[in-house]
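pinging the channel bc i need a second pair of eyes. not urgent but kinda urgent?? the chain im working w is below, pasted from the shared doc
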Amino acid sequence: MAPENSSKKLADKHRPDAQPDSSIKYEILKHSLNNELSCTSAFLIAKELNVSPDKVGMTADLINCRLVKCQMGLFGYRPDKKIVKPVMTANQNLKNAMAGNLVEGKLACKIAWDIASRFNVNKITVSNICEGMDIKINECQLGAF
């Protein structure tokens, strides 16, 4: 387990009376390694248990399990935390889809995933293009950011 101050930091994102869901906690402990849960595993758990990804993220926070290896490449990688690299050239229709879905200049994670699926590209490709267009991705589906 991580030190208490680290645990408090993760749990502080949630209501003081928030409690981890026992079935989600069990699956997180089964799928985590060194107190870390990958984004991919978190989504697998959400699908298996038919719960929203943010419930998995919240439970991970409450049991002090760090989310790592964001599928968008935005957090959880070593040594630099993120692996996103700006891409300046891309399909104009793809860029237009991203630009057309901005809210206050930002693109929600879920929308970014939908765009990746619609254009049959990797999620990280959408992130890289966003980085090149100076678009921030927000509203992590797991609640990490």
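so Residues 92-138 form one domain. and DSSP finds seven helices and four strands in the chain. — does that match what u expected or am i reading it wrong
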